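Weekly structure sync, notes
Attendees: PL (lead), two postdocs, one rotation student
Agenda item 3: pending single-chain targets
PL asked that the sequence for the first pending target be pasted directly into the notes so everyone works from the same version. It is reproduced below exactly as submitted, 432 residues in total.
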Amino acid sequence: MFTTYQEALDWIHGRLRLGIKPGLTRMEWMMEKLGSPEKKIKAVHVGGTNGKGSTVTFLRSILQAAGYTVGTFTSPYIEQFNERISVNGKPISDAEILELTNVIKPLADELEGTELGGPTEFEVITAMAFYYFAHAKNIDIVIFEVGLGGRFDSTNIIQPLASIITNIGLDHTNILGDTYEEIAFEKAGIIKNNTPIFTAVKHPGALKVIEEVAEKKSAPIFRLNEEFQISGHESIARGELFALKSQSLSLEELEISMIGQHQTENATLAVLAADYVNQAGFQVTEQAIRKGLKEAYWPGRLEILSENPMVIIDGAHNQEGITALVHELSSRYSDRRIQIVFAALRDKKLDEMIAMLDGIADQISFVSFDFPRAAKAEELYQISHSANKLAVEDWQSYLLGKIKKLGSDEMLVVTGSLYYIAEAKPVICKNM
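Predicted structure, written out during the meeting:
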């Protein structure tokens, strides 16, 4: 038995040594031992390559504005580990993490002795979430974010009210497949029989795969530019304005406080899912939709940490994320000299990501950070073709010095791996 929060956390993180082990058998084994908590939860399941966390946040904020108590399970964390299991946007306490770890550890030890092998870090945290939400009082609904893929993801043992697939990109190709279609097949694994699927996937081949799975499972499908449309998009100083139209909704001048045109798609998926759960006994009004969208906040996504000097942090950790970041920087900040600090995991498509950043940065600095799969600054530096590039080992001192020297016509963009963003944000905020 663990007696402190830190002991519990060390044990959980220690399971990273087991890596990623796709499959549902260990989760099913643990759930059976725990009395099937996953069957006691009303849930919405959110998958996709990018935008999962934002979509979860929009939906949580809408349902909360409608008066409901909403649980969320997300990954990774940005500011503190506990935020992975939250209620109404508030992370559960250290004491609750400790209690949950002491519930799951005996099962993990027992499982270790079977042919299935011990559960991974993500499986342990997912089991904790299921147990917590099944036993917590007054939780009306839980939104689960897929960790990796979908078909064999640990969260995919739920029977949700609705499923969402945000988009499809070429990420985690070593596990999910090399093509959009192969990855779409894995993501589409969260589609359940007779359960609606809402999607903003645009790639024709990927969308076709999702449509085929939906048809096979008799799942009603709602697709961007088919069953619903987004129009009237306009960027504003601290967010976006847009309109949406679907079979049951027609809403003008919706406002979100997250930056990026892509966020209008995530917000729309959340609105449609919120509207759908009305059929499951919930009551979500237009007022709740508008209030929830405007108040939704998700850290580390094109987040403005300071306007003078201008400092933005963004967890653009794959090609799709970098594409969205570059689009927003070029359209919003064309009048500024852009300084970029970038860190990444080495299993990403780094050449294409760095090439896009090279194209927009007046200066680009590559940094190392302490994480098992992190690329070294020098590795990233060698990939870049920028005429003004640096490789930096001590990122903290460099970052703080850089911020102090920023001119009024400059901006600093700290981007890359979400694991790096989680380390960098508190350092920046503490010293601003």
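Discussion points:
- Residues 94-112 form the longest helix (19 residues).
- The longest strand covers residues 228-236.
Action: rotation student to compare against the earlier draft before next sync.
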